[in-house]
Design a protein that fits this description.
Blueprint lengths: L1 E8 L3 H12 L4 E4 L13 E3 L14 E3 L1 E6 L3 E5 L5 E3 L2 H15 L2 E3 L4 E4 L3 E4 L4 E9 L6 H5 L7 E10 L6 E4 L1 H4 L3 E6 L3 E9 L5 H14 L10 E6 L6 E2 L2 E3 L1 H4 L10 H16 L6 H19 L4 H17 L16
Parallel strand pairs: 1-2, 1-11, 2-8, 5-13, 11-18
Antiparallel strand pairs: 3-7, 4-7, 5-6, 9-10, 10-11, 12-15, 12-16, 13-14, 14-15, 17-18
């Protein structure tokens, strides 16, 4: 059995960000990824403007949008800014870029490495391999084994259904149709030669089958033929109950840090991954970034709770939110789970 300073379960953006920071400080780090390749994931691929602080190269972006088209049952508005509000990225390319940075820093990465069990100071991987650790980071997504091993339940879950449709789509669109999607929304996120078209909603308010049927109805209204194509679906955990548990950490979706309101989770995964690394390196580290991230997460959760009180409540809350966006009372960037001020 080989022992590492830190074992990270999950090779997504959060896990790789955590691993890279630790390895640059000379720590022996292993990332265990259950899939055969780093990167690909069911995801709309939208990256909020706050993520530019991570130093992503411009060549990584597929499209950039200074305008956001938002429609509801009663309103339509276009939010505009001088600089891009959201960019789109291919998750496979993002993963490969982050993996290259991690490997260059000295991180060991194992793919096809499904973790079956976690004991006091080691992880047991399919095939019989065992790895010891001083620190363990759960970056293994919404169905996190590390979270389950810690005995932390997950009750607040969103579901996202996505189609990747070929074609040139000029606008980034958000459709908050409460009659079809309840407190959720449908989206069109253009990429280079395709668009991510899908729907997100809180799972407790609508069944996945009904949500898919509603997406097909909406698509037909907008001349988007979806029904004959193969959808992909993913669960999104926004049930945050802590991130630091002794020598074990939860980050990103494993911690429930995705936005319950929008479903976005890449930014919070990277921030929480880096802050977990800083805390591992310095047990006295006071993370103002995590404090701000958690505060923003709770704000989104409160809005979602208000919009989950029934069809009328959902419609009134979401219409009021769009009105505030349209009139500038609330800036669009307030819907991002981001850091307001650098720490």
């Amino acid at each position: 059995m080989k022992k590492f300073h830190t074992v990270i379960v999950g090779g997504g953006p959060g896990g790789l960000a955590c691993a890279t920071l630790l390895a640059r400080q000379g720590k022996d780090v292993l990332v265990l990824e259950r899939n055969s390749a780093i990167g690909p994931k069911v995801c709309a691929g939208g990256i909020p403007s706050v993520a530019l602080d991570f130093g992503f190269p411009e060549t990584l972006w597929e499209r950039s949008f200074t305008r956001q088209h938002i429609s509801s049952n009663w309103q339509h508005t276009v939010i505009q800014d001088a600089s891009p509000i959201i960019r789109t990225v291919d998750r496979g390319r993002l993963g490969r870029w982050m993996m290259e940075k991690a490997v260059a820093a000295g991180v060991s990465i194992a793919t096809n490495a499904l973790v079956l069990k976690i004991t006091e100071n080691r992880v047991h991987v399919r095939g019989g391999e065992e790895y010891g650790f001083c620190f363990l980071v759960g970056a293994d997504g919404s169905s996190s084994l590390v979270r389950r091993q810690l005995g932390i339940p997950t009750e607040k879950i969103g579901v996202g259904i996505n189609y990747q449709i070929p074609g040139n789509f000029p606008e980034m669109q958000w459709h908050l149709d409460t009659d079809l999607f309840g407190n959720g929304y449908a989206w069109i996120f253009p990429h280079q030669d395709t668009a991510s078209i899908g729907v997100y909603a809180r799972r407790s308010t609508v069944k996945s089958g009904s949500l898919l049927n509603s997406l097909h109805q909406w698509g037909a209204r907008h001349n988007l033929e979806l029904k004959s194509r193969q959808p992909q679906a993913a669960l999104i955990n926004f049930d945050f109950r802590g991130w630091r548990f002794g020598n074990r950490f939860l980050i990103g979706d494993a911690a429930g840090l995705a936005s319950g309101l929008t479903g976005e989770g890449i930014y919070s995964a990277i921030v929480s991954g880096e802050e977990a690394a800083r805390t591992i390196l310095d047990s006295g580290h006071e993370s103002s970034k995590m404090d701000q991230l958690i505060k923003k997460h709770h704000q989104h959760a409160r809005i979602l709770d208000l919009a989950s009180g029934g069809k009328l409540a959902s419609k009134l809350i979401l219409e009021a939110m769009i009105f505030c966006l349209r009139t500038g009372i609330i800036p669009f960037r307030a819907l991002e789970i981001g850091i307001d001020q650098p720490s």
